[in-house]
Structure formats: C-alpha cells, structure tokens
Amino acid sequence: MIRGEMFLRHFVSCNAKRLGLREEVTRIERNIGSLKSLFSTTSSQYEDSASEERPEFPGSRAGWTDKLEFVKPDLYDGIPVYRVIDRKGNVLRPDQDPNLGEEVVVKMYKSMTLLNTMDRIMYESQRQGRISFYMTNYGEEGTHVGSAAALNPDDLVYGQYREAGILMWRGFPLDRFMNQCYGNDEDLGKARQMPVHYGTSALNFVTISSPLGTQMPQAVGSAYAFKRDQTRRCVICYFGEGAASEGDAHAAFNFSATLECPLIFFCRNNGYAISTPTSEQYRGDGIAGRGPAYGISSIRVDGNDTLAVYNATKAAREMAVNENRPVLIEAMTYRIGHHSTSDDSSAYRSVDEVRFWDSTDHPISRLRLYMTHRGWWDEAKEANWKGKSKTKVLESFAKAEKRKKPDWRYMFTDVYEKLTPGLEAQLAEMESHLTKYGDHYPLKHFAKREGPIE
Q1: Per DSSP, which regions of 55-115 are E strands?
Q2: What residues pair up with 328 in beta bridges, in sequence order?
Q3: Does 210 qualify as catalytic in the annotation?
Q4: What's the rounded mean pLDDT across residues 73-96?
Q5: pLDDT score for 13
Q6: One of 51, 201, 210, 350 is an active-site residue; which one?
Q7: Annotated catalytic residue 49
C-alpha cells in the first residue's frame, strides 16, 4: 500500500509540472489521502468482522446470537431409541440384523433363560431363609447378554450389582454363583461379601461393591491404564439411572472425556431406582442426553431387544478402542422383579404395570420369536432346555448348600500381602478366646484349614 502510494504521488507530481497543471496536484493528492483512509478503514472493519464471526471463548463451541433465548428441555423430541427387532421378533431393517448365526443366538437365549431359572430358585431360597439376600435380573437379561456378546473376553467389566448375565455369558459356572450366594468355603470372596457380589479376575470381572456409583471413576482409571499400555482393550462400566445421580457419575463422565479413555458407560435405565421412578429421578432427556454435554458420543437403545444391544455395544467398542474415547449407551428396559429381596415393589407400582411388561415386551420372549421365525427353536426344544436348565441349577444349589463356611481365620487375611504384627496379635487373641469358649460358637459349620493361613 505504501509503495503504491509513493509511486502514484511521484507520477502525478511529475506529469502535473510537465503539463503546467500545478493546480491539479493538490486536488489529486487529497484524493490519494482519501483512498488511503478508505482502504485502511475497510481492512480494519474486515479484521473486526472476522473476529466477531464466532466467539473465541475457550470454554465452548458456539456462534453469536442477538436473540435473548433460553434453551429449554422440552423444545425437542429427545434422543430416539434404536432397535433391530419389534415385539414380535421381526427384523425391521435387514441391514441392521447382525446375522450372528444359530449357534451364537441360541447361546444367547440359553444364557438368558438359565439366568432366569437361577433367579427364580435363588429368590425362593432367600424367602425360605436359606440365604440372606438376593437380587433378580427379571426383564433385564437382554441388556446383559446382548452387551456381553459384543465384547472381547479380555475387556474389563465393572458391574453395579444386577449384571450376573455378563458372567453367565463368559462361562462363570453355576457352582461359583451358588458358592458366592451361600458364602461357603468355595466362595472366591471367602464369604466376605453379601450375596450377588460376584467377581473373578479369570473372567475380567471386577468384584461388585455395594456403594452406589463407586465403580464409575474406578472404571475410568482402568481405561486410562489400557490407553497408556496400548493394549486395544476396552472397559465397560454398568450402572443404573439412579446411580447417574451420584457425584461419582459426574466425575467419571468428565474425566473419561478429558482423558480420552477407551470406556463404554452402559446405563441400564429400568424405570426405578429401588422405589424412585424416573419421573422423580431426573427432568432431562434421560441419561443419554447428558453425554454430549460432557463431550461423549451417546446412543439410546431398546434394552429389551438383545440384537440392538449387541449392535450398539459392538459399535461403541470399536469407537472406544480405535479412537480412544468414551461412549455412553442408555439401554431402556424395565425391572420386572422387586429391587431385591428387601423390597416390595407393589408399594409403589401397580401389578398391571408389571404384568404388561412381563407379557408384552420381555427380552427372552422377543429373542425366542426371532429364533422361531428362522426355524432355530420350537416347543420341543423349549421344554427340553427348560427341564435341563432347572436340573443344572438345583444340582449346584444342593452342592453349595451342603458345604461349610470358610475358615474363620480368613477374616484377618487379604488386606495386606502378609499379616501385620497387629493382625497377628488379634488372630492369636481370637484363637485363645475360642479355645476357652469354643463350645458357645457353631464352629462345626466352619471349615478348618490345616496349618497357618497367609
């Protein structure tokens, strides 16, 4: 701009003098000054408008608006619910059918029905006073098996407490389920936990803990470790819509997004957090609606459609592993059973409501219809499998009930690698006490391990 201005002034001045047009020099120089001012103003305006086009605040991604308007939660229809088959077992779009084959789908069905059979027998055993506590999985079997089938065996699982179907799919024996619920000497947890608090490192399933939501930030830590190790392993963390109200859920969502962890958050939205319905649990668009606010890709899926759950989990796993990022799945389902044996759901919901879901939209029924349409299942197979599965559960049940409790000395172990002097002193004091007053304790029901314990 400056060099052009100098050339123009020199050209005008020389030619004006040569032609005797001195009076034009002043006028032309004034015009040059005006042009210079115009170009300068236009350039400044362009730079200002460019910086004003989008906000430059570091904490958001948005444009400007001159309209005073609050974002209201009821202005949109909500995240849709993805499904593959309808309630009659018909595939809605052929390109969405995962085409898993007869062997895999039948295994899915048998895992779900075996879990259902175990639930019925164990629930009744608690009512008879044979175990202290139990939680059924009625109506949520599809969320367990559909998601478990889409994972790799070495993917790490953090459960809440209603995910026995994942273990069932991975091959956790019925004997192990029963031993844990009875807290006998074959229980992997040595009877230190309440019933249904399963766990096994062999199947990459972290032991259940009772406090709600604590598994969520722990899952983030494991996923971050996988990311650093570059193992292409994934973590999946199960929780209910009630747990999503815990502060741990917020911390987990935020940390997983900012640290970019290969993690699947799997929410089982079954309608009730014990006695609290979703209408009193939150006001927004469920749990999936929270994902984008944290920077997490999210999807809502029909939890009673086992194949839809499979597709969503498989896609989520690929995204989590390939892109090192968390994914949120909200599986919409319904808890047909009571929250636990300590709950009576008839106090806060109608029998007709429960009967509707049990008879109209049960995940086991939908998968059976899907198999029947393909000729993979019939009434004869159903009757045969029902008898076999019940026999299997009862046999494991009987064996577990007959076993003794673990050696009482195990209450002092496994906190430290080796017993500390303080724990050794407590153990010695307890042994002395039982030597003197052992007749007052049911020691005959406890196994006795030979030699010292470590």
Answers
A1: 81-82
A2: 265, 298
A3: yes
A4: 93
A5: 53
A6: 210
A7: no
